Sequence to fold (181 residues):
Amino acid sequence: MVRRRVGGNSRVLRKKKLKLSKRASTSGDISAVVAAAVGVKKITQLRLKKSGGRAASGKQRVAALEALRKQRSQLLKQQAAERMVLKEHTRGLETRRQRIRKGENAKMERRELGKYIRQLKEEQKKKHQSELAVIEEAVKKNGGRKGYDMKRDADEWEDVEDDAEDFDEDELQNMFAHLTT
Fold:
């Protein structure tokens, strides 16, 4: 019977290194291959190229505004999902807070949980406002005189507070399931 080595996956590691070296030799850019292999997510900034032509610059401005609008829309969707997650988390914290009744430190624990919940909500609100302000500032900056009509875009979003109908938790989760996955 042949003795097999127990433990270690050196053969698998050698295969991975061989694959990486083959990719590096074909692509020529080793750092790109390493970044792709590691799975580093890199966010690239929007770069606007200046051009001499008037028509070309107009097209670029429209393209840049469209990119910023898409980015803003994605951000709003992401923020809605984050708000839903925080709401669920704070709901759990609130129930925990309500259950704390007995004990010598019960009053202090309830206060601390309340402070923590308020702090989480405040931090998220500030973060969302700053992220949105950055994008809207970029839109205004790149919009020129014609600008980006924020009022028109705000009209496209319906105001939930005006609706009289209430949704239960299951309906809300079904509505926003595509945002949280």
